[in-house]
Structure formats: C-alpha cells, structure tokens
Amino acid sequence: MSQWETFSRLIREGRTVPEIAGTFGITELQVKRILALGELLPKIREAYRRDEIDTETARYLTMASKAQQKDWLALFADPGQYAPRGYQLKQWLFGGQSISTKVALFAIEDYPGLIVSDLFGEESYFADADLFWQKQNEAIAAKRDACLEHGWSEVIVLEPGQHFHSWDHEKTPKKKGGKVFISVSHRGEVECHEGWLSRKEARRARANGEGAEETAAKPSRPELTGPMQNYVDLHRHAAVRFGLLDHPGAALRLMVAHAIAGSGLWQVRREPQRAAHEIVAASLAACKAEAAFAEKRREVVALLGQPDEDGTIAGGNGDDSGTASFARLLALCDDHVMRVLSIVMAETLEAGSAVIEALGNHLNVDIGACWQPYDAFFDLLRDKEIANSMLAVGGKHVADGNVAEKVKTQKKIIRDFLSGDNGRRQVETWLPRWMKFPVESYTDRGGFRTADQWARVRSLFVCE
C-alpha cells in the first residue's frame, strides 16, 4: 500500500510506468499490479493494509466493478454474512449467470422475459441471460451513438470483462480529442468513462502542441491491417484485370498513357502479385477471376505459338524471343493483336495503385461475380468496430444487439447470415465496402490506402 501511494503520486507528477520500474528496480508488470490497487474502494484498501484481506483476494477485487466491490464490502462488514475470498471470490465475480435488474441500461418494462424477485422483493434478476444481453447491447449501442452525436471524437466499447484502468490514461476534455470508453462487466454492469486519452496519446498531443483536430487526424490504428490491405489490393486487382480483357479499347488507351507517363511497372515488368501472408496467397489461388484470367491467357499464348502454355507474355528481357514474338504478331489480324494487348496490359497492371480504382469504376467491374467471402477474409478481419459494422448484413438491430460481443462471435454471426446457418436468413449477395466499386470505408479513422487513392482521382472520372 505504501508503494501504491508512492507510485500514484509519481504518476500524477507525470512519471511513466517504465520510468517508475527503472527507478525502483522492479518490472513494469509489478508496477502495473501495484497501481491496480487504486481500483479498490478506500475501505478495502485499508483492510488490505491491515492484513484483513490476503493478496489473492485483493487481486480479484481489483477486477471487480465499483458496484461489485460495494456488495462484497457489505458482506465483509456483516459478521453474520460470508464474504467470499480467493478462488471463491473469482467464482462469485464471474461464475454466476444471475443478472440483477439494477444493471440494466434499458427500461425494465421493455424487457419481454421473466423477472425473478427474492422473497422480500428487495432484489430482482433477469431469468433469461441471453435476452438480457440482447437488450443491454442495444442500449450500449444507443449510448455509443449518443456520445458520437454529442461531439466525442471516438467511443470505444470494451469487450466484456476488459477493465478500464484510469492510471494508464489521462483526463482529456472533448475539445482536445478526449475519447469515451465504455466498459462492460460479466455481470452486465456498464460504466461510461468520458474524456480520457491513453498516456501515450496524451503525450503525443502535448508534443505536437495541437488539439482535437490533430488528435483526430492521427488515429491510434489504421482501418485496415497490413495483411488485410494486401488481401483487398490483390483481389481488387484480380477482378479489374479480368474485366479489362473485354475492353481492349480501354487497354490500348491505358497502354499509351503508360508509354507517355510511365508507372511503377512500365519498364516493362509483370505485376508480381506478391502476397504478404500465406492465407492471402491461398485465397488468391482459389479466386475465380484468377482462374478465368489464366484460361484466357493460355488462348493468347497459343496465338503467339509459345511452347509454354502456362507461361506469361509480358516481361521479356529483350533477347531474340521478343523479335520472334513481334514477327508472330505481324501475322495476326487486328482482333487477335488486341487480345494479346489486353493480356499484356493486364499482366503489367500494378496492384494497389490508383489506376485499379479508376479502371474498376470506369468498367463497372462486378467483384461479386468472381469473389466470395473466403475463409481468409474472415481470418484477417481483426477489428471489432469494423466487424460490428459488417453485422448490418443482418440489419441494424443485429449489429446493435451484438455490439459488445467479441470479434470472433461477430464474425460467426456474419458467416451464418451468408450461409443461412443456425436459423439465420441467408443473404445471397454481399460485398464488404472495401471490395465495392466505388470503394467505401467503414470508419473515419483513415489508414485505408484504396479509399485515399480513389478520392484523389475520383473527380477525373465522375461527373459531380
């Protein structure tokens, strides 16, 4: 407890956890555990100081909400009651399914299920835990939306059981980019922490000397992870270059534009389609657009009389094979030459470039005809906020009703709607916003290269 008082004072004075650990010669984890004592009510801390509570019990109480601590303290202070300790305390905190009506964010009269009361009518509980969580999640989603409407830059709904640690954050007003954190306990209790930034974000804001606008411009994480951006780039590239084959006139004009201005590929080199992760490579190998493109390329290889029917066409090294190809082209009619040109242009089309966005919109490419939400897509989907937005595939009530669920659960619900499993209404055609033409984002966080590229060139191709 003396260490907690010292560490808490140092934190208030601006010292960091690593600095405190270095000063006292202990690990950062030990510092964090000691700071966690600040989550305890004062009476519990004093009981711990007097050795009336053992360390294990104190540790579990740091994971309890303030309401749970008050309930436990009432048992502890009553000699006629038993206050659970150690492992039994953990079971008391997290093991039961009985949920008190006191924790409901929604109006009790809106709950359609059974409510059970004790003999004295002083305590009442929801009999159906699943129905309670559906209503509670809807209320949490409404709370989140209300905070955003009131001007908070970001509202983060923590997963059930994930605690908000005030000692690892700094109070920050709304106008300086403060965020709202909503914590949800396993017993259904909801706590809203308004006006906080992590200490790292707060230090960065002070270093920049800027307020809310700068904080909003520098999000804590991009919308897409690196592997997901790679996945999106390659599948959009596959669909666009296959669509190009039916538009040789566009391919010709694109080729001339490359010849005039150059590009990252026009030297000439083929697009390597380099996958950053093995699951991305596997998904591309199973892509319908890739298979259809390979078949069209084999037909053109036969036109050129090349011995390797599965070989590529573009990207020669300037030896006599280029002269032989030229001689063969001279013997072909214009239509066949245009087919060759389309393949060459498609092979040298740069994945993840702005031209993919421009061409996909110009050709009205239908990715849904050649792309399906393969396992790799959901394996790479890690962002809880994005997964919750995608739940709108089943309607807003489904997204709101599962706002606090884990990402794994939300992804399972999305897949059930796409497959029609577990009694869900099957959605026949669905595309993530990232895969559409024109492309769309799920958040305002930025970090989505594809959307930024289309925003830069959109005015050149769309009549406003």
TrEMBL record:
It comes from the Bacteria. Residues 204-225 are annotated as: Disordered. This is ParB-like partition protein. It comes from Mesorhizobium delmotii.
